[in-house]
Amino acid sequence: MCYAIPGKVKEIRGKQVLVDYFGEEKKAINEFYDIAVGDYICAQGGFVIKKVKEDEAREVLSAWKELFFELQDIDLRLSRMDLGEGSDKKLRLILDKALENIPLKKDELLYLLDLDSQQSCQLLYKSANFLRQKYHKNSCCIHGIIEISNHCQQQCTYCGISTHNKDLPRYRMTQEEIIETAVEAVERYGFQALVLQSGEDPGYSVDELAITIRKIKEKVPVLICISFGEVGLEGLEKLYHAGARALLMRFETSNPKIFARVHPGQKLETRLEHIHKAASLGYLIMTGALIGLPGQTNEDIINDIYLTKELGAEMYSFGPFLPHPETPLGNLKSPSEEKVLKTLALVRLIDPEVAKILVTTALETLEPTTRKKGLLSGANSLMLNVTPVKYRKLYAIYPNKAYSDELISTQIEEAISLLKSLGRAPTDLGVSKVI
Ligand code: 5AD
């Protein structure tokens, strides 16, 4: 749950609080605040991140109330569907099952991933959007990402910041820069959840990262998500104790052979061990895979979605592989936009009630107009790039990364205006400021 609008606490059971948002109830975990029934709080990813004064909360809520229901109406209208559309009977039977929340079999999922007619794909996207609306209503997570260093000691054969890319100028933000950027993202732009990401950079010790996280948490109320690669199981523990509460770590592919081929010297097992450990520590899990790795079959993609679900992911991050010329896989092709959208839709069908599904920057780089399509194919989450502009182009995991130049304020305006046109509530940002 990522509602940044203040909610009113209705019930408290130990660490669990039940929060009311305009009549909708959501649960959140409270670890740090002294909270009583009737108080107002903000929560991110199911964690209470701040207490809000009553008059402030009432002001935001009254500004929001009318718009909230207006947006819900737009969303409801856009997500209506009719399976009578289209002529493919088998497709309609499969989607009918999915819409009834009956789990689909693998061969049915494969049938969907194989669809090629525009009309059939549209029906799949619409079904996914219907389920998104049914279980998640119109809320859309917007998290910020700060790419703190592009140094990396790994040799992943697809990645533009791996050791393969000898010509890339490397940068590493200082602790002060990271803190300043994070504080600005929260205080000036209203972000309530931030991903800190880097290559596997031995230039920062886990202890240093922990201090940085602790200092950010001391300064601003924010959900911190870490994405520093494999920091070790003990490292995960240290960063949790420092205040990080979410882990973004893709396993990249559930197929161990492909994993080994594209990650020289690494093991799928170790990656999964990290994710399991993080989940057991209480981190919120954001994970997923690359679509279009060499040798990957449609069945692999479905297994990737299954594995993400098994890992207890709250957020699914699935994006296209985009070849980087300075890497061993530089001559390959990226997958089609359609393939990625179908994958997002399948995620929604496989895990309709839990999945927050991200429209990745990689997908937007593949096809600049795709954000809207993704949000209408089951997705309900965006990540905006709040890295200082001078570093953004250098975080070149793939070429021509979208949003490398856009000011944060421009990115926010664009995102909010799209979300409003779709009837989605950008409930993660400082809503009182941006609407
Ligand atoms: N294309 C798309 N995504 C990539 N990543 C790394 N290299 C590429 C690429 N060439 C993704 C990986 C990693 C995330 C930070 O960036 O999936 O988990």
> First CA to last CA: what distance?
21 Å
pLDDT under 50 segments (min length 5)?
429-435
In spatial order, strands of the major sheet run 14-12-10-9-8-7-6-15
Structural class: alpha/beta
Radius of gyration: 21 Å
Helix content: 40-55%
Bound ligands, named by name, code or SMILES: 5'-deoxyadenosine
Oligomer: single chain
Largest sheet: 8 strands, parallel
The number of helices is 16
Number of strands: 15
Classify the beta-strand content into a percent band: 15-25%
Mean pLDDT: 93
Overall shape: globular
Question: Care to give the gist of this entry?
Answer:
By secondary structure, the protein is an alpha/beta fold.
Structure description:
This protein has 435 residues and is an alpha/beta fold. It is 42% helix and 16% strand. The protein is built from 16 helices and 15 strands. The chain has helices at residues 54-79, 89-99, 106-114, 118-136, 175-187, 206-219, 233-242, 256-262, 268-281, 298-310, 337-350, 361-366, 370-375, 389-392, 408-421, 431-434; strands at residues 7-13, 16-21, 24-29, 40-44, 47-52, 141-149, 193-198, 223-227, 246-248, 284-287, 290-291, 315-316, 319-320, 356-357, 381-385. The chain has an eight-stranded parallel beta sheet with strand order 14-12-10-9-8-7-6-15. β1 (7-13) and β2 form a beta hairpin. α2 (89-99) packs parallel to α4. The longest helix has 26 residues, at 54-79. The relative contact order is 0.14. It binds 5'-deoxyadenosine (5AD). The site of 5'-deoxyadenosine has 13 residues, from loops.
